[in-house]
Amino acid sequence: MTTRSIYSPDERDESADEQAESEASTGHACPDCGGSLVTDDSRGETVCEACGLVVDEDEIDHGPEWRAFDSQERDNKRRVGAPTTEMKHDKGLSTNIGWQNKDAYGNSLSTRQREKMQRLRTWDERFRTRDHAERNLKQALGEIDRMGSALGVPESARETASVIYRRALDEGMLPGRSIEGMATAALYAAIRQSNLPQTLDDMAVVSRVDEMEFTRAYRYLNRELSLQVGPPDPATYLSKFISELDADDALERQARALIEAGKEANVHSGKSPVGLAAAAIYAAGLLLGEEMTQETVSEATDISTVTIRERYRELLEAESELDDSAVDATSGAESGASA
């Protein structure tokens, strides 16, 4: 059975023109020549294939901000909402009712509405921390974030500290020890693992417990969790101390060279890395002719002048021995070549 169009030829032409105009107005056809449009996602432009007219530019990219090169990486990076974080007791998966007491338009709530929101916040807080372990974790992670922020510790190290504390909580290591002490110990362990320049004295300034308590907790954490924490490198503290002294890069380079010479001579074994860093700065100042006294270095590094005086001599002797051995090796090579 054949079908016939109910439209006349003129009506069909008029309908086709209306369809073309509709496509042009909705962005499916070029408004100039009627050609088809192509969108270039890399440039954010919509261009006519026929005449090259740029119909639209600076288009908003509604895709993800990350890049993935295979399906596994894409699945790992895909998310809805904010990424999870170890720095919150619920890993950031719960909702949080704000404290602004304003509606979506920025208008202040009435007294009755504010009282209602306060009750909702109270119940929301209770549901988020339903048992003792969650309340413990929330308090500890808050302490880690507070101390890390005060010391300028990067978020990656604070995240590591949160993981260490979670491990201690899961292993049942907290009974008999304060939350603040274990939180300080976890943060210091993360600082050591990340090779950051914060010292025990810095931790004592921001911690709510005394130094003896959190150092005991740190040794306990290190032993029971078998943390991969190596001996601190004296060179780690140089940038911090150089900044405190407002010294130049040449002094820092010379101090690093002295520390490397001291390592080769095993001067650093059994010595305080902070004391060696302070002594290296003072010794570097002597070699470069800088007007820097032991008292000045002592005040900036919080190391006694006695320690600086003892260690800087050892570093200078180590560098001198290293230079002598290098000269002897060069002379031996030259004599062997001449023979």
Largest β-sheet summary: 3 strands, antiparallel
Separate helix tally: 13
What string gives the helices and strands in order?
Answer: HEEEHHHHHHHHHHHH
- Give the N-to-C terminal Cα separation: 111 Å
User: What would you report as the Rg, rounded to the nearest angstrom?
Assistant: 34 Å
The CATH homologous superfamily of the domain at 234-330 corresponds to: Cyclin-like
Mean of the pLDDT scores? 82
What fraction, in percent, of the residue positions are helical? Answer: 55-70%
Number of strands: 3
State the shape: extended
CATH class of the domain at 234-330: Mainly Alpha
The CATH architecture designation of the domain at 234-330 is Orthogonal Bundle
Sequence of strands across the biggest β-sheet = 1-2-3
CATH topology of the domain at 234-330: Cyclin A, domain 1
**How much beta, percentage-wise?**
under 5%
Give the uncertain stretches in residue-range form.
1-7, 18-27
User: Which structural class should the secondary elements be placed in?
Assistant: mainly alpha
Description:
This protein is mostly helical. About 60% of the residues lie in helices and about 5% in strands. The chain has 13 helices and three strands; from the N terminus they run H-E-E-E-H-H-H-H-H-H-H-H-H-H-H-H. The longest helix is centred in the last third of the chain and has 34 residues, at about 305-339. Mean pLDDT is about 80; it is low at about 1-5 and about 20-25.
